[in-house]
Amino acid sequence: MNAPDRYERFVVPEGTKKVSYERDTKIINAASFTIEREDHTIGNIVRMQLHRDDNVLFAGYKLPHPLQYKIIVRIHTTSQSSPMQAYNQAINDLDKELDHLRNAFEAEISRHSERFML
Amino acid sequence: MDGASYQRFPKIKIREMKDDYVKFELRETDASMANALRRVMLVEVPTIAIDLVEIEVNSSVLNDEFISHRLGLIPLTSERAMNMRFSRDCDACDGDGQCEFCSVEFHLRAKCMTDQTLDVTSKDLISSDHTVVPVDFSDSAGFDSSEQRGIIIVKLRRGQELRLRAIARKGIGKDHAKWSPAATVTFMYEPEILINEDLMESLTLDEKRSFVESSPTKVFVINPHTHQVTVVDAEAYTYDEEVLKKAESMGKPGLVEICPKEDSFIFTVESTGVIKASQLVLNAIDILKQKLDAVRLSEDTVEADDQFGELGAHMRGG
């Protein structure tokens, strides 16, 4: 009867930002990004991509509570970079990786179907 | 601003492809990417399913809610779903779904006039859009082609009647499992199995046999002539570690070494029939890209930080 609407799990409520950024007050080049209505799907790929960046000293994410539909990504970088730069870079790299993956998969589909046409 | 790129270039090889099944290898990426794809395929690729039912007459033995639930679970062909709008953010209607951009209307009229029980099936659903119809499973199953039956919704006896209007909408599996396009999506690490040949040769033939048989799946074979143990099917290995335990109990630890290749995955994708399995993978990639786009930092966040940035530079002594 008083159950929350199911769409609350994936629709960002009006007036809230999808991604909010908060600098760490004590450590330079450290920050947390709160991403609304995302889960391990995004959290884990972003974290692993950040680990590939040599300027990232720490990258982690958490899902604070299963009923709070948000994740918190924390990044600490060297002074050569900044959390925001690392975050943007990680997303750009993942985006390009997926572009590549899509092209590779499409090429495989046509290669595979041609072989069965013969 | 641009740092070095840490992009990867994954490789794909399709092993088997049918309409509702694909098996492929994904290499040179990591488990997070494989798992993200799996998760997106299961619950974030949109499909179309009946979401609203208005019942005019129902004198069948099943109650209205029961029939509505069954209608929701009927798979509908969803090639259109990627280009449709969610009814909650459709501008053309108030979201109660009667416009062509976000919904498809179905009608069902059935009345039993004979003493023979009448089966009301998914084939009796009349769609307003010929691209969105109940999935036809008849040819692939081994059924007689003369007996093309849909999915049974309810059975009617003489005099009973069912008349309703249903609205199908676009949705995702996270909302309700009826919108999930995937029957199963799995991936496994490709195993690498190394046999220590010297140690293996120190075994008697009987020991070799019992070693080979200790694996619940057929991973190893003995060559009948040379009595050499070889790997026939590394992928049949289910990471059960039975052979390792066997080697240990025979006092030969290290007889075989099995390590999962951490950048190599074997995927199997089975679709429910609403879209092709290969299309499901492609849609999942697109959806994941859209999700990444949505989590990019917005302009005002960057601006707000720039002011901070000066302060930060000052703090660093810049």
TrEMBL record, chain A:
Biological processes annotated in GO: transcription by RNA polymerase II
Keyword Chaperone part of the UniProt annotation: no
Entry keyword set: Coiled coil, DNA-directed RNA polymerase, Nucleus, Transcription
Coiled-coil residue spans: 84-111
Pfam family of the protein (one): RNA_pol_L_2
Domain DNA-directed RNA polymerase RBP11-like dimerisation: residue ranges: 31-103
GO molecular function terms listed in the Swiss-Prot or TrEMBL record: DNA binding; DNA-directed RNA polymerase activity; protein dimerization activity
Entry annotated with the keyword Nucleus: yes
SUPFAM superfamilies, A to Z: RBP11-like subunits of RNA polymerase
Record-level GO cellular component terms: RNA polymerase II, core complex
InterPro entries named in the record: RBP11, RBP11-like, RBP11-like_dimer, RNA_pol_Rpb11_13-16kDa_CS, Rpo11-like
CDD domains in the record: RNAP_II_RPB11
Subcellular location: Nucleus
Principal location: nucleus
Family: Belongs to the archaeal Rpo11/eukaryotic RPB11/RPC19 RNA polymerase subunit family.
Protein name per Swiss-Prot or TrEMBL: DNA-directed RNA polymerase RBP11-like dimerisation domain-containing protein
Organism of origin: Trapa incisa
From TrEMBL, chain B:
A Pfam match: RNA_pol_A_bac
Source organism of this protein record: Trapa incisa
Main location, first listed in the record: nucleus
Matches recorded under CDD domains: RNAP_II_RPB3 (cd07031)
Signal peptide as annotated in the record: none
Protein name: DNA-directed RNA polymerase RpoA/D/Rpb3-type domain-containing protein
UniProt-recorded Gene Ontology molecular function terms: DNA binding; DNA-directed RNA polymerase activity; protein dimerization activity
Family designation: Belongs to the archaeal Rpo3/eukaryotic RPB3 RNA polymerase subunit family.
Cross-referenced InterPro entries: DNA-dir_RNA_pol_30-40kDasu_CS (IPR001514), DNA-dir_RNA_pol_insert (IPR011262), DNA-dir_RNA_pol_RpoA/D/Rpb3 (IPR011263), RBP11-like (IPR036603), RNAP_Rpo3/Rpb3/RPAC1 (IPR022842), RNApol_insert_sf (IPR036643), Rpo3/RPB3_RNA_Pol_subunit (IPR050518)
Keyword line: Acetylation, DNA-directed RNA polymerase, Nucleus, Transcription
GO biological process: transcription by RNA polymerase II
Cellular localization per UniProt: Nucleus
Ranges for domain DNA-directed RNA polymerase RpoA/D/Rpb3-type: 21-298
GO cellular component, one term: RNA polymerase II, core complex
Taxonomy of the source species: Eukaryota, Viridiplantae, Streptophyta, Embryophyta, Tracheophyta
NCBIfam families the UniProt entry points to: PRK00783.1
